[in-house]
Amino acid sequence: MEKSARILIVDDTELNRDILEGLVASLGHQPMVVDSGKEALMILDKTPKPDLILLDILMPEVSGFDVLKYVKNDEELRRIPTIMISIVDEMKSIVRCIEYGADDFMVKPFNAILLKARINACLEKKEHEDSEKKFNFWLAESYQKLQKAEQIRDEMFNMIVHDMNNSLVMILGEADILLSTLYEKVDQSTLQSLKNINNAGEQIKSLIRGIFDVSQMEKGQIVPKKEQCDVLKVVRETGEQFEATIKRSDGLLRIICEAETLHHELDVALFRRILQNLLANVIKYGLSAENPTVEISVKKQEGILRLTVSDNGPGIPDDQMDKIFHKYYKIKPENRGLGLGLAFCKLAAESMGGRITGSSGENGGAIFTLLLP
Amino acid sequence: MANGLQDITEIPGLNIAEALLMLDQNTDLLFKLLSKFPANHGRAAEQIRAAIAEGDFELAYRIGHSLKSVAGSIGAYELQDLSGLVAKAIREEQDTEQLLQSMNDAIQQVLQSIDTLVK
Predict the structure, then answer these.
(1) What ipTM was predicted for this assembly?
(2) For burial by CB atoms within 10 Å, which of A2, A50, A265, A288 has the most?
């Protein structure tokens, strides 16, 4: 304890006050001496507050126990360490004080070495608690600021995306008009340019949709509407959308299901979007150079629907398996897309009470498993 | 302030070496306590008797209690024990007169010794 502390000494016996005052001063601290509980309460109502209280238990009128009760029931004062003082014969009252929150006790006659150790221990404890409190306060404040900043960022981002979307709808609409009106009037290369504009616009549109979806999911604005459906039919339809692209890379899409139909209660739109996202990822990252194969397997076990999408592509490094479901996470920074697809899948699966996990296949490749109750 | 307390080896009713040990060799502080003792506690037996006579047993107990702690601090161990017994007897509502006499004898001896030390 380097710094000098203010120590309130409360004792009705003058010679005891003298001893405590002398010992406290010799420790380099500032004694504040009073001769009654009443005086102590008056001092405690003023500022600055003491850093420690040495409190005699047996005093007329307002006893040490009364002062202790006052201190420990006060939000501000309770942090001041309080050492009770008594003679050995009064062990019962000492125990009562400790139970009431007294930090330590000293028996009279005083042993200077012991008193010094106890004062220092209590002061160090208080200093530690004070700095811990300050740190916690700072931490809570920083966290709040961070949350606020994140909120502002998200709002700004959504606003920009929203405005971008409005312009994009116009661009796509105009391109469409140009395409249909100029179809037979212009040469092939002009037509191709128009188609390129359209395609690029559609790509941006799907990115924007991903952002909207995740943002709405996070805000809980999408509430799943469960209905009975033939899951296999939905899987086949969705698979067909991607089959042509896979075939263009000389790949193969297999749908595996033991039954002809597979009924389950789920939100069809969300389920379809999850599968679309998983297949879009396969096409972007999962097609191997030789004999690319994509498998969708679907089955029902003990009432749980299990959908897996696997490929024989480069797979996902083990240390990134958890992170790929985080918003805006990309395995490689140069990857196209925003890194929202899997974040959406996770949120959508969870909104339906299910979950989605990623793993590596025995012979490489990535496997995504969706489980829905 | 050199008061010579550290050189005292034996004086009736007081263990100066032990008292200094408890006070971390603070001779100035012990000198102050010894100087104040006669006025503050020299008439403890009388005061206890008066309090008992008035039926104020709390006050009587507190006087014995205070004396016990102070006596312990100045190395007056016999007086510490006797005042403790007096306080205990008051609390337990037993007869105190004999104990009070012994306590007073011890006080007188401590006062005499202090008189030689604190001039």
Answers:
(1) 0.90
(2) A50
